Amino acid sequence: MLRSTETKATQRKAFPNHRNYRIDDLTACVPREAPLTELPASFKDWDSLAARLSCKNDEEVRAFRAAVDAMPPLDHTTLTEIREIQRGFMLIAHIAQTYVFGMPGSQPLQELPEQVAQPYVALAERLGCRPVMAVAPYAFYNWRVDETRPWWSESRNITFPALQICHTLTPTEQLFGSISVLSESIAGPLYPHITRALETVDKDGDDAQFIVRECLEGVLQSIRDIMEATQEIWKGCDPATFFRQVRTFLSGWSDPQLFPNGLLFRGVTTFTESPDPIDPYALSTATVTNQPNDPVVHKALAGDPGIRLKFAGASAAQNPSVAACDLFLGVHHRGQVGDSLSSNGKHHNLLAEVRNHMEGPHRRYLNDLARHGGLRPWLTRKLEESPDQPGVREMGVAYNACVEDLTAFRSKHLAIATQFVVLEAKKALREKAAMTGTPEGEGSEEAKGSGGSSVVPFLKQARSETSETKVVTSPR
């Protein structure tokens, strides 16, 4: 059935071709060529510090911070090749996490020194990212090939990746980061199917429904591959280790209890980030007529020795391929009251907002896909106007299969989040209550993911919104 916004007169922009956005046919938004394992010799201090990320006690934390404080400023502009820039950003992001957070459970520092803050912000601007830990620096720029671990899904055989560096040196963190790489890189074939489908819709020929159905079958396989890759988490990730150790180093600086004024980037006067993400639900809502298009410029306040930034940390929602499925299929995520993490105070739903943590070209692809409108308006019009035309109903069935499996993926994601975050948060609360003699629920807050969202309500709503996207394929 047509939504009220899916009229024949809907204006459609040119469809985005993924190949113009640094998205690979085989590895999606993960670089096909393995990341560098070291930078030029002039950056040996960064590489050396990266080998000391895992601090076992307060003395090692103090020594690490002292080494960072003593480090001379390095000229990031000498990093010119894309893999150099990506590795530089990855290293400085990891160094910043250990410098700020030290060890799990300790009180974080409230500022970064100039020799970290300046290259962090500058490299983030060059990549179109935010200067905060996210999936890209944590995993996409931080993997190596592990030839000892072949892995295969229903449709593809690939080599299981391994992280180059990590904070806790635990098998749990190693596997968690590897799955982040695997679940994105396995989705490479998704993008040619999306591009071909949108090109077919643009031409709208007599055989369009047959080609689109074939593309939808390819999209379905990619959704299943992503789902299969994420299930690897049950084979070696320990929930307690993840919650109590790994999660700290995925965090950002948006928690008002830990960072009431954000994190100070000493010596940095401005940070310019790309325009806010396009929210397709807002585009289709009559009360919202414009989307922000101007860059957001963060400036230091008068008297401050640098800018203060409040950004959430890494989240599974930052994997671009699941977002691409949403936008291609036309899933409308409406957002929850209070879930916005927008840096400029404007409301966006979280699944749109997290795009600001992605590398610039990948975010632009998703924004352009959102502007385009995806497949659903054309498909629903076909089902309304030509339901008996050969191939049309079968196309609708293939579309619904994609929606059903994307809904199933969100159910599995909810199960993971419940086990690794919600239940572990309850355990931690019980332990705290036993130690302090406080009632178990006193002072507690709802479990939140490292990206800053309330886990269970957010994921349940996302699942419901996905399921609602199914179309009517049978005669009325």
Automatic annotation (TrEMBL):
Belongs to the indoleamine 2,3-dioxygenase family. PANTHER family: INDOLEAMINE 2,3-DIOXYGENASE (PTHR28657:SF5). It holds the Pfam family IDO. InterPro entries: Indolamine_dOase, Trp/Indoleamine_2_3_dOase-like. GO terms for molecular function: heme binding; metal ion binding; oxidoreductase activity, acting on single donors with incorporation of molecular oxygen, incorporation of two atoms of oxygen. Keywords: Dioxygenase, Heme, Iron, Metal-binding, Oxidoreductase. The lineage of its organism: Eukaryota, Fungi, Fungi incertae sedis, Chytridiomycota, Chytridiomycota incertae sedis. The keyword S-adenosyl-L-methionine does not apply. Residues 432-476 are annotated as: Disordered. The keyword Metal-binding applies. Heme b binds at residue 413. It comes from the Eukaryota. GO terms for biological process: L-tryptophan catabolic process to kynurenine. This is Indoleamine 2,3-dioxygenase. It comes from Gonapodya prolifera (strain JEL478) (Monoblepharis prolifera).
